[in-house]
Each structure stands twice: as C-alpha cells, then as structure tokens.
Amino acid sequence: MPLAVVEQIALVLKSRLNVMIDDSTTFPVNVSEVVRPTRFGDFTPLDRQIVLVQGQLETVPELSHPGNPPAQAYRITFQIRGHVINDERAFLAIDETLNQFHADIVKAVAVNTTWQTFGGLSFDAEWKAPEYVSADGGIDGVNVPVAVTFRTNESDPTEVRG
Predict the structure, then answer these.
(1) Where on the phi/psi map is residue 48: left (φ > 0), alpha (ψ -120 to 50), or beta?
(2) What is the DSSP string of 56-118?
(3) Model confidence, pTM
(4) What's the burial of 88, exposed, middle or buried (CB within 10 Å: 0-12/13-18/19+)?
(5) Within 13 A of 40's CA, how many CA atoms are on the CB side?
(6) Mean per-residue pLDDT over the chain, rounded
C-alpha cells in the first residue's frame, strides 16, 4: 500500500536528521536519537535528542492546479525540536549549544541545493523562525520549524503532482 505523500516527506526528513546521530565530526552537537512520538509521547527526553513532530496539514488553493484529476496543494509544518539537558557545571553557555544545534539541524536537512524538493515529493520548503526554550534547570531546547509545500492528486493523496 502506498504511503501518503506527507508521510513520505516525514520519512525523508527523519532520515536526513538521523545522519546527525553520533557524527560529531560533521555536526558538533552529537545527537543521541531522532524520534517521532506516538500518540501518548512514548519517549524519554534525552540530552541532544531530536523530536520530529508533524503540524496540521493545510490546503493552499492558490497553488492548486486544474486537471483530470485536479492537483491539490498542501503545506505542512514540521517542528524539529532539539532537546538539551545541560550539565549544571558546564562552562559552555546554553545559548551557544542551542545556536549550534539550530545550525546543525538546518545543515542536515538542507543537505544539497534541491533539499526543498525532498527527493521530488515537494516543490518548496522554507525555514520558519527558530524558537528557543529555556527551562531553567530542566530541558532546554530549540524548535526549528520547516514548512513544506507539495501537491497530490485531489482524489489520491499518495500520488505526487508537479
């Protein structure tokens, strides 16, 4: 059974983030894991963990196309949340770690000049403003939203349309 295009995009995004795991040579923030939470969360927060969360799917009528069948345009924003549990005795500022985490996430996802097409599944993607979280002794982090725009057949959301 073919997967919905939005799910295929999520899998490409996760695979790009997975390259950050245990690669401190390319990515200074040594990521411990990348997870997509289940309905009940079902994960334990870890230091240098990425949690990939899918937002609401929205239609983009002005980018849809007529045809037989018509092509329906959608935009989905994925929240890429980087968790950091900072050592209280660390001399490195938490902001420095979060800034680097943000940079590493962008570098891993925007892996080449056509990164925004996600292997032909979408026609555009754009970074939204990162959101820094300071937990004052708990989990600090950065949320890096990326909005991906794509088209499918109006009658079959598993089929990519240009």
Answers:
(1) left
(2) EEEE-GGG-B-SSSPEEEEEEEEEEEEEE---TT--S-HHHHHHHHHHHHHHHHS-STTGGGT
(3) 0.93
(4) exposed
(5) 1
(6) 93
